[in-house]
Amino acid sequence: MRRWSFLTNHARVLLCIAHDPGVRLRDIAGLVGITERSAHEIVTDLVTAGYVVKDKAGRRNHYRIEEHLPLLDPIGREPTIGELLAVLVGVNAHRDPPLPESVHDD
Questions:
Q1: Would you tell me the crossing angle of helices 9-19 and 81-89 to the nearest 10 degrees?
Q2: Distance, CA of 104 to CA of 98 (rounded, Å)
Q3: CA–CA distance, 99 with 106 (Å, rounded to integer)
Q4: Who contacts 73 (Cβ-Cβ below 8 Å, separation ≥6)?
Q5: In terms of C-beta density within 10 A (0-12 exposed, 13-18 middle, 19 or more buried), how is residue 22 classed?
Q6: Nearest in space to 56 (alpha carbons), one of 88, 22, 10, 30
Q7: CA–CA separation, 71 vs 48, rounded Å?
Q8: pLDDT band with cut points at 50, 70 and 90 for residue 84
Q9: Which of 12, 40, 66, 95: CA 20 to 30 A from 86?
Q10: pLDDT at 19
Q11: In the chain, which ranges are continuous DSSP H helix?
Q12: Domains plus CATH for the chain?
């Protein structure tokens, strides 16, 4: 059976960055299942489009997602990048750690 995903590689790379803003291209490639060159091209696309800002931290890159920007998708209202990440990763999961079990109400 052929392997496929509902998410494009661009969306999957964006999720990698959301989970770890300091992620290396080599790690993105491994997680997404693409070449390091493809990972570089996709990150470049996201940076060029303005969805991701790349900052240099020594020899490493650190990424910041511009969550307020709309998705340019023709499926009606244009949700923001942050709204998409909230659905895929959980509300603020890419920024705030979950509460300890003892804090949750049953």
A1: 80
A2: 10
A3: 13
A4: none
A5: exposed
A6: 22
A7: 14
A8: confident
A9: 40
A10: 94
A11: 9-19, 25-32, 36-48, 81-89
A12: 9-91 (1.10.10.10)
Task: Give me 102's structure tokens.
Answer: 């003892």
Distance, CA of 50 to CA of 5 (rounded, Å): 25
Q: What is the CA radius of gyration of the chain?
A: 15
Query: For residues 7 and 32, is the Cβ–Cβ distance under 8 A?
Result: no
pTM, whole model, 2 decimals? 0.71
- How many CB atoms within 10 Å of residue 74? 5
Parallel, antiparallel or unpaired: strands 60-65 and 52-57 = antiparallel
Higher per-residue pLDDT: 74 or 83: 83
Q: Count CB neighbours of 32 within 10 A.
A: 20
Q: What number of CA atoms fall less than 13 Å from residue 16's CA on the CB side?
A: 26
The encoded tokens of residue 35 equal 């070449």
What number of CA atoms fall less than 13 Å from residue 34's CA on the CB side? 18
What are 48-75's pLDDT values in tens digits?
Answer: 999 999 999 889 999 999 998 887 666 6
